[in-house]
Amino acid sequence: MDAVAAARREVCRLHSELLRWNLVAWTSGNVSARVPGTGLLVIKPSGVGYDELTPESMVVTDLHGAVVEGDHAPSSDTASHAHIYRAMPEVGGVAHTHSGYATAWAARGEAIPCALTAMADEFGADIPVGPFARIGGAEIGEGVVATLAGHRSPAVLMRGHGVFTIGRDAEAAVKAAVMCEDAARTLHFARLHGPVRPLPGADVDALYDRYQNAYGQPDRTREGA
Ligand SMILES: O=C(CO)[C@@H](O)[C@H](O)COP(=O)(O)O
Question: What keywords is this UniProt entry annotated with (predicted)?
Answer without folding.
Answer: Metal-binding, Zinc
